[in-house]
Amino acid sequence: MKEQPNLLSGQEPPDFRRKFKIIGSVFLIALSLLLLRLGYLQIIRGTEFRQKSENNSIRFRNLKSLRGLIMDRNRVVLADNRPSFDVIYIPNKNKGNELSIEKLKNFYRTKSLEFLYDQSVSPNAKSYLPVKLEKNVDMEKVALIETNALDLPGIYIEVSPIRLYLDGEMLAPVIGYTGEVSKKDLENSAGKYAYGDILGKHGIEKIFDSYIRGHNGAELVEVNVYGKEIKNLGRIDPVSGYNIVLNIDADLQKAAGEALAGRSGAAVVLDVRDGSVLAMFSAPSFDPNLFNSGISYEEWEKLQNNPLCPLSNKAISGQYPPGSTYKLVVAAAALEEGVITSDTKVFCNGSYTLGNRTYRCWKKGGHGWVDLHKAIVESCDVYFYTVGKMLGVDKIAEYAKRFGFGGIAGIDLPNEKSGLVPTKEWKLKRKKSSWQMGETISTAIGQGFNLVTPLQLANAYGAFANGGTLWRPHLVKYIETTEGKLYKEFLPEKKGELKLSPKTIEILNGALWGVVNESGGTGKNAKLSGIDVCGKTGTSQVLGLPENEIARRAKRLAAFQKDHALFACYAPLKNPEIAIAVILENAGAGGAVAAPVARRILSAYFEGKKKNKKQ
Amino acid sequence: MIFLKFDRRIFQHFDWTLLGLVLAVCAIGALNIYSTGFSAGEGQSSFYLKQIQWIALGLIFMMMIFFIDYRVIIQNAYVIYGISIMLLIFVFLFGYSSHGSQRWLGIGGFALQPSELMKLVIIITLARYFDDHKSNEPYKLQELFVPFLIILAPFLLILKQPDLGTALVLIFIFVSIVFFMGIEWKSLIIVSTGVLISIPIAWHFLKDYQKERLITFLNPENDPLGAGYHIIQSMIAVGSGKIFGKGFLKGSQTQLKFLPEQQTDFIFSVFAEEWGFVGGLILIIMFMSIIFWGLKIALQARDLLGTIISFGITALISWEVFINIGMVLGILPVVGIPLPFFSYGGSAMISLFTAIGLLMNVSARRFILQR
Question: Which site among A3, B3, B133, B347 is 20 to 30 Å from B88 CA-CA?
Answer without folding.
Answer: B133
